[in-house]
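Here is the promised in-class demo. Please do not try to memorize the tokens; focus on the logic of going from shape to residues.
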């Protein structure tokens, strides 16, 4: 009798076990069963041979049209040329010396062929592929492993492993399934019956040996539940542990800085800002750490929410930190906090309000003296508010009493870094993470682990919508009008951005490829495939700048902003732009995150098709932050109707960030969304699709929360506990730890 822990060698023999271990890392019966078919071929449905890609390893189902054996010059060698068809297209299959394996390949026979697609004299062919006859009589007569394993009508196709033919895996699975009588089921019986799920062993039979598509669906539904529940239990345990961790409860007094700020702020808070503010106030007044993600469109007013939370922390006698991913953004945050607070943030200055606090800035490029001063104010607590970059994470930075950490634009900031700050004090501070990238809820719940999510859904009143247009580069009239729009806006007293995918000029320009949101914080220009195979290089700031200055935007004050500028220069350019001393900023995606100049009303994105959907949405949030209507012009040489054009058209068609985020996610692999740093979590997501399985994930989350509340250690559910431990391999565990 075997169970899922039985070594494969005890079921399949030494040789096969070694092969499976080497090629696929499968050691136990359980490992093999969890190696799921990637897709299914319908028996008798021939594979479409028109879509084979050279270089790919494929398994195709096809019918033999002709087979011609020729002796070769050397004695006892032969070559068999077989032509197979899917009914419309044909494929050449060539065998050298495979006499025994190929003797039944004659006209009319249907078989599976597995091998690498090659090209020979302009035709695609398979050379010495593995063959599996599908005609049962022949297979039986051959006494070979036979097609009986595929009797079900659906042929499972496993993720390709070069050396192991598909049917060998199928056969091994079959042997294991027939010997296996018992398997520990991690899913509690109550959940199984509540959600009408089959047992684990049944689920494996259904997905490995289905007789219909309904079987596949039923089996998969059950296995998805395992994935979802295990992930959610891990997160629920994290939340539970967090609740057991002591933090200092911070209560705002009735007449502190927060009250003074609320009395002076020149606008009414939106309903969302008020509600989220209340939630945060409640959570930081609890004796365990708040872990909250604040999501909201660019311009939805997250900074004000954060500032109010920070003031609460200061009123309660602590300090609050606002962490930004770049120096530019930190400098900008400092400016906007100072503006918002006015005299309330100027302790030690002449015009300070009574009870005022001080804002300290800590970045890597501070001069020695400024740095010493700032660090002293942070250490002795005279700076209640601290704004900075990752320079704040250095060992030399100590706080008097760190109460709250606010991380802006989380997706550019590593989880590890966030963790450093949390571990800096003996009691972890409360944590608020802000992101403007709209993330579908289930993704947020998975990527951001144990964070609770709040969303600001409305923009402050008085905002004008942004009109977005796709401008075809081939159309000169449109192109002229586009630059004309910038000239008009500037003439009307407004300002503009021109965004390019690259910096340019320097041979060391990394020409970064891929819109990796986790890229090094100050590295910019992370547009999609800037150097993608054979295309012309994308527009670069340093190439575009002189041309615009001399021609299209002659007479306007045009300046460049990008990640290779010295931080001081960057800051100077931003300050001058904010002050209205620069009309047009030609920039890379450094401006994507958080830059707030309400007077900027028009943005041209050059080679817009090189950017991702969410990134474009993020970028255009930089215009239309004031009361004047904003324009976003997506300049591209993509052909109208091409997929690239359609993506841009989608961005132009809606300003609903959540909808665009879903579209973005649907077009990318989920692993990319989860990010390389979180790849540990990917293993746990094999069948689950974060978008399509939203309902399932939400129910699993509810079940997981209830389970963990009732039984944190899962002592009543040993199967689930074991599956959880197995899933949380080291990387995943490390990732969740940091979540
Ligand atoms: P986000 O960080 O979410 O992109 P900000 O907090 O930077 O947005 O806010 C964008 C702009 O809107 C800022 O100039 C801010 O002062 C202003 N603002 C914030 N809340 C309101 C409100 N309730 N009413 C009017 N203006 C607001
Ligand atoms: Mg912001």
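The designed amino acids, position by position:
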């Amino acid at each position: 009798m075997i169970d899922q822990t039985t070594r494969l060698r005890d079921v399949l023999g030494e040789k096969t076990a070694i092969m499976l271990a080497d090629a696929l890392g499968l050691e136990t019966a359980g490992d093999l069963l969890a190696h799921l078919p990637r897709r299914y071929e319908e028996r008798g449905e021939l594979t479409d041979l028109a879509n084979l890609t050279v270089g790919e390893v494929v398994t195709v189902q096809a019918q033999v049209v002709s087979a011609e054996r020729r002796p070769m010059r050397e004695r006892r060698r032969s070559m068999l040329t077989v032509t197979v068809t899917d009914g419309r297209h044909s494929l050449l299959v060539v065998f050298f010396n495979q006499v025994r394996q190929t003797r039944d390949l004659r006209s009319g026979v249907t078989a599976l062929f597995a091998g690498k697609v090659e090209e020979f004299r302009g035709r695609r062919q398979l050379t010495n592929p593995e063959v599996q006859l599908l005609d049962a009589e022949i297979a039986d007569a051959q006494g070979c492993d036979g097609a009986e394993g595929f009797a079900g009508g659906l042929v499972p196709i496993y993720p390709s492993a070069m050396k192991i033919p598909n049917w060998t895996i199928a056969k091994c699975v079959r042997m294991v399934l027939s010997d296996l009588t018992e398997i520990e089921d991690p899913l509690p019986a109550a959940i199984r019956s509540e959600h009408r799920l089959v047992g684990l062993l049944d689920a494996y039979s259904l997905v490995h040996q289905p007789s219909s598509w309904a079987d596949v669906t039923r089996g998969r539904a059950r296995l998805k539940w395992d994935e979802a529940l295990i992930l959610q239990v891990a997160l629920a345990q994290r939340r539970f542990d967090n609740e057991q961790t002591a933090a200092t409860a911070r209560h705002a007094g009735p007449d502190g800085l927060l009250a003074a700020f609320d009395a002076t702020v020149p606008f009414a808070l939106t309903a969302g800002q008020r509600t989220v503010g209340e939630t945060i106030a409640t959570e930081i007044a609890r004796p365990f750490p708040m872990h909250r993600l604040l999501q909201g469109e660019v311009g939805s007013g997250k900074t004000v929410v954060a500032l109010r939370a920070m003031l609460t922390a200061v009123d309660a006698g602590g300090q609050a930190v606002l962490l930004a991913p770049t120096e530019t953004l930190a400098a900008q945050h400092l400016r906007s906090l100072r503006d918002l607070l006015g005299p309330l943030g100027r302790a030690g200055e002449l015009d300070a309000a009574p009870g005022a606090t001080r804002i300290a800035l800590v970045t890597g490029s501070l001069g020695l003296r400024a740095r010493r001063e700032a660090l002293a104010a942070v250490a002795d607590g005279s700076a209640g508010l601290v704004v900075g970059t990752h320079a704040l994470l250095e060992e030399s930075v100590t706080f008097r009493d760190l109460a709250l950490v606010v991380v802006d634009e989380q997706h550019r900031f590593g989880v590890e870094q966030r963790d450093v700050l949390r571990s800096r004090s003996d009691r972890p501070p409360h944590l608020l993470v802000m992101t403007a990238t709209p993330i579908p809820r289930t993704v947020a719940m998975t990527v951001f682990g144990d964070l609770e999510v709040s969303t600001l859904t409305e923009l402050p009143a008085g905002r004008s919508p942004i009109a977005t247009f796709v401008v075809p580069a081939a159309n000169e009239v449109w192109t002229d009008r586009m630059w004309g729009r910038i000239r008009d806006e500037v003439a009307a007293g407004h300002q503009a951005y021109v965004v390019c995918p690259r910096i340019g000029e320097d041979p060391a320009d990394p020409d970064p490829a891929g819109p990796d949101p986790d890229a090094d914080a100050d590295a910019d220009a992370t547009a999609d495939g800037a150097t993608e195979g054979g295309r012309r290089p994308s527009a670069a700031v340093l190439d575009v700048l002189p041309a615009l200055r001399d021609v299209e935007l002659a007479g306007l004050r045009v300046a460049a902003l990008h990640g290779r500028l010295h931080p001081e220069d960057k800051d100077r350019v931003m300050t001058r732009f904010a002050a209205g001393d620069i009309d047009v900023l030609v920039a890379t995606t450094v401006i994507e995150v958080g830059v707030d100049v309400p007077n900027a009303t028009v943005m041209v994105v050059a080679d817009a098709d090189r950017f991702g959907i969410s990134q474009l949405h993020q970028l255009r949030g930089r215009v239309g932050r004031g009361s004047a209507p904003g324009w976003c012009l997506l300049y591209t040489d993509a052909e109208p109707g091409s997929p690239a054009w359609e993506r841009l058209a989608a961005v132009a068609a809606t300003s609903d960030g959540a909808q665009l985020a879903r579209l973005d996610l649907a077009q990318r692999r989920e692993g990319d969304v989860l990010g390389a740093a979180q790849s540990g979590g990917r293993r746990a997501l094999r069948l689950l699709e974060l978008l399509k399985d939203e309902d399932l994930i939400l129910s699993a989350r509810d079940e997981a929360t209830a389970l963990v509340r009732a039984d944190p250690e899962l002592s009543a559910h040993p199967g689930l506990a074991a599956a959880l431990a197995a899933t949380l391999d080291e990387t995943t565990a490390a990732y969740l730890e940091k979540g």
